[in-house]
Design brief:
This protein is α/β, with parallel strands linked by helices. About 40% of the residues lie in helices and about 15% in strands. It contains 9 helices and 7 strands. The chain starts with 9 loop residues before the first strand and ends in a 9-residue tail after the last strand. Bound molecules: nicotinamide-adenine-dinucleotide.
């Protein structure tokens, strides 16, 4: 049981592709805590998986949204407005980089690969927040985006995705400043390595996860549920004084020098 009460909240979670997605752990935690959840999925390829998972939640709204398409973002929020008329929080758990941009030399990053990675993994938070804020109304709300420490430190091979995470965290701070007067909080959640579809695309991921477990103060890897619990806290009223923050859920790995 997740011990946060979110009974009166409705929220949108983007980024469920399968049962290993961080977004799915978050959506389940939200559902258990009493929130009503909308799941936005990328495309037809993931739809059957998302629909199968969604059927285990309490009356979720399920809607397609490729975040590189403004029309689809518009249609998603139009549907939420039509069906719910309000939104309390948004969880962004989306990233993509073409395979050729991961591993190999960062020096070879292509212009097209840079644009695509930054568009999906960082820029998307801006139009999504733009769509969500009007639905949050005067009572405000919360936005949480999942990030990774490659924004602050070098993880060889992570390459342009590190660039995107740095941009994402700057966007979090910029939005936090701009949306604060409207009582909308914007935070990042920097997760340690977790075995997911996205992680499979990162060369050397198993070694990275192993080294993380060895060097982290807690001497282990984190779990999906630990990320979900922190996300539940950040979208809840218990976090009402926190905005612009990037919270590390990484067993303490980020504090280490050696
Ligand atoms: P995942 O592959 O399950 O999730 C990535 C999601 O992004 C998928 O649902 C995919 O459909 C979605 N997506 C990609 N392009 C999209 C587009 N154009 N429009 C809409 N959706 C799109 O993997 P994950 O590990 O759960 O990743 C979720 C987030 O967590 C990402 O931001 C990732 O960088 C971050 N993260 C992951 C780890 C890890 O070790 N797995 C660690 C830190 C941060």
């Amino acid at each position: 049981m997740d011990h946060i009460e979110l009974q009166d909240k409705v929220g949108l979670v983007l980024g469920v592709a399968n049962e290993r997605s961080i977004a799915w752990a978050i959506a389940q935690g939200l559902d258990r805590s009493g929130a009503r959840v909308a799941l936005a999925y990328q495309n037809e390829r993931v739809r059957p998986h998302v629909e199968r998972l969604a059927a285990t939640l309490h009356g979720p709204l399920v809607h397609p949204c490729d975040v590189t398409e403004d029309d689809q973002i518009g249609a998603l929020f139009a549907r939420i407005e039509r069906e719910w008329g309000q939104l309390d929080f948004l969880v962004h758990s989306i990233a993509f980089a073409p395979a050729r941009e991961l591993g190999g030399e960062f020096l070879r990053t292509s212009r097209a690969g840079f644009h695509e990675t930054l568009d999906v993994s960082a820029y998307s938070l801006i139009p999504l927040a733009r769509g969500a804020v009007p639905l949050m109304g005067p009572r405000g709300g919360a936005v949480v985006a999942i990030t990774f420490q490659a924004s602050e430190r070098v993880f060889p091979g992570y390459n342009v995705m590190g660039t995107a995470k740095a941009a994402l965290e700057q966007i979090i701070r910029q939005l936090a400043c701009e949306l604060g007067p409207r009582a909308v909080r914007v935070c990042g959640l920097s997760a340690g390595p977790l075995r997911t579809l996205a992680a499979r695309g990162i060369p050397g991921f198993p070694e990275m996860a192993r080294s993380h477990a060895e060097r982290a103060p807690l001497k282990r890897n984190i779990t999906h549920d630990e990320v979900a619990h922190a996300a539940l806290f950040l979208v809840s009223d218990l976090a009402s004084g926190i905005t612009g923050e990037v919270l590390h859920v990484d067993a303490g790995y980020h504090i280490m020098g050696v």
